[in-house]
């Protein structure tokens, strides 16, 4: 990628503040899918900062680099030596391998001038379906190649791909009969911030002839060699739980059915253990270990350039990490959504003591500043932080979206922020972007 191309992408993110979101088109799409004219209106009231009206720009070269990093991670994760190392600190349930590889993996990146760097990986990554509809409801306003490319986005093809992923998971577990029913499972689903996306998924499944329910884990029962939700037999669980290893009492029935092979669960506890646990980043950034496993030089180079150095926090390195705390981010290894994660320059002695003496292991990761995006709100310019999420299946990127925010975490509660479409291209000079 040329320096001029990168400068143009940076200029678009700094200067192109026109509104691309066509809210009327988005509402028409939601109404058609959900069958409820109030769905979009209610969403705007209850989730006013879920969707940004302005896009994020990404060069094609950096998008390709993100795919390269993801492919390298998945290649290492498939190695028996890597899996043995992971299983040393993973619960027993992670060793069960029913076959599926996990739908909607989320690889989160911050973008530096010399390329993207992976911050974390999620197995319960939300937002893919919402972002698909969001990307479809865009209109051109900046005269640049990136926006023009987005206008050719094919929503129908992507939704078909999403459905084929679930069908492929079904086949990976060796099921020959048709997939007939799916349960979207989360704790208190109606209270989850992304519950509207659950409804969209339910309608997507139903449109493809698959019965679908939205339920909590305690709504499930396991008997007669099957998982049930009330009187409905469940073939597949689309798992949005953050009880990653089904350890809570309310997950008892789901755990039993999963281990018995009586239901397909995607993403599964095994997938979370192998890829999403943050302790794995310590392996993926350990050059000596990677070489000992025989990982190719090119893959090692990609990982070390693409993932900030991450180490497990232990009594042996605690003093050194405290000394370098201003350059580090501390995260619980099994955490999610920025919960109990701390920038080192914000940490107090009390919190530090809690981290060192708590039950959950922490990792220390070199800080990579978030990307920046300038947006216009009520005529005023505001600089937002941004991260980029690649939604993947079987290691292949299917959709890239951004989250614009202020503060420490991507909380989808910042005025002007929220999910933002990502326009991928090399850009071209624009006469006016505002």
Features:
single chain; 434 residues; alpha+beta; Rossmann fold; Dna Ligase, domain 1; 2 domains; four-stranded parallel sheet; 16 helices; globular
CATH uppermost class of the largest domain: Alpha Beta
Largest sheet composition:
7 strands, mixed
> What's the pLDDT, averaged over the residues?
91
Helix content: 25-40%
Structural class per helix/strand content? Answer: alpha+beta
**What would CATH call the homologous superfamily of the largest domain?**
Glutathione synthase, substrate-binding domain superfamily, eukaryotic
The radius of gyration computed from the alpha-carbon positions, rounded to a whole number of angstroms, is 22 Å
Record field, number of beta strands: 18
Strand content: 15-25%
Low-confidence stretches: 427-434
How does CATH name the architecture of the largest domain? Answer: 3-Layer(aba) Sandwich
Shape summary: globular
Domain unit count: 2
Descriptive overview:
- There is one protein chain.
- By secondary structure, the chain is of the alpha+beta class.
- The protein has two domains: 3-279 and 370-424, Glutathione synthase, substrate-binding domain superfamily, eukaryotic (Rossmann fold), CATH 3.40.50.1760; 309-367, Dna Ligase, domain 1 (2-Layer Sandwich).
- Helices cover 36% and strands 23% of the residues.
- It has 16 helices and 18 strands.
- The protein has helices at 3-15, 23-34, 38-46, 60-77, 80-87, 128-136, 145-150, 155-172, 195-207, 252-259, 269-276, 280-284, 287-292, 297-306, 318-323, 349-357, and strands spanning 56-58, 105-112, 115-122, 181-185, 211-215, 220-223, 226-229, 232-234, 236-239, 264-266, 310-312, 328-332, 342-343, 362-366, 371-377, 380-393, 396-405, 418-424.
- The strands form four sheets. Strands 1, 2, 3, 15, 16, 17 and 18 form a seven-stranded mixed beta sheet that branches.
- A hairpin with a 2-residue loop joins β15 (371-377) and β16 (380-393).
- α2 (23-34) packs across α3 and α4 packs across α14.
- It is globular.
- Residues 427-434 have low confidence and may be disordered.
């Amino acid at each position: 990628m040329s320096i001029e191309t990168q400068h143009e992408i940076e200029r678009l993110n700094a200067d192109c503040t026109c509104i691309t979101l066509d809210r009327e088109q988005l509402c028409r799409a939601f109404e058609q899918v959900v069958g409820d004219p109030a769905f979009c209106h209610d969403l705007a009231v209850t989730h006013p900062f879920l969707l940004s009206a302005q896009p994020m720009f990404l060069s094609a070269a950096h998008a390709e680099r993100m795919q390269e990093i993801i492919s390298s991670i998945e290649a290492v994760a498939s190695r028996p030596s890597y899996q043995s190392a992971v299983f040393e600190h993973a619960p027993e349930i992670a060793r069960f391998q029913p076959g599926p590889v996990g739908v909607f993996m989320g690889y989160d990146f911050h973008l530096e001038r010399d390329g993207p760097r992976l911050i974390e990986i999620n197995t319960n990554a939300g937002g893919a379906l919402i972002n698909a509809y969001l990307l479809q409801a865009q209109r051109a306003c900046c005269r640049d190649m990136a926006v023009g490319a987005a206008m050719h986005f094919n929503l129908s093809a992507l939704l078909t791909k999403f459905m084929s992923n679930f069908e492929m998971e079904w086949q990976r577990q060796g099921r020959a009969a048709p997939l007939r029913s799916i349960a979207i499972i989360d704790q208190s689903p109606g209270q989850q911030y992304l519950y509207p996306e659950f409804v969209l998924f339910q309608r997507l499944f139903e449109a493809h002839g698959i019965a679908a329910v939205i339920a909590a884990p305690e709504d499930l029962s396991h008997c007669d060699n099957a998982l049930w939700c009330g009187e409905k037999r469940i073939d597949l669980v689309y798992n949005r739980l953050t009880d990653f290893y089904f350890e809570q009492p309310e997950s008892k029935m789901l755990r039993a059915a999963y281990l018995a092979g009586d239901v397909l669960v995607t993403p599964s506890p095994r997938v979370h253990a192998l890829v999403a646990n943050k302790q794995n980043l310590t392996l993926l950034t350990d050059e000596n270990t990677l070489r000992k496993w025989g990982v190719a030089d090119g893959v090692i180079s990609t990982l070390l350039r693409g993932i900030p150095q991450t180490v497990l926090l232990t009594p042996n390195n605690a003093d050194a990490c405290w000394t370098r705390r201003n350059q580090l981010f501390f995260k619980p290894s099994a955490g999610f959504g920025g919960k109990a994660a701390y920038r080192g320059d914000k940490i107090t002695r009390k919190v530090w003591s809690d981290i060192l003496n708590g039950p959950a292991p922490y990792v220390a990761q070199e800080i990579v500043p978030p990307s920046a995006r300038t947006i216009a709100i009520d005529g005023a310019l505001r600089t937002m932080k941004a991260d980029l999420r690649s939604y993947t299946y079987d290691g292949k990127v299917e959709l890239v979206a951004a989250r614009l925010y202020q503060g420490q975490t991507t909380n989808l509660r910042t005025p002007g922020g929220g999910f933002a479409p990502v326009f991928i291209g090399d850009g071209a000079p624009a006469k006016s972007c505002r």
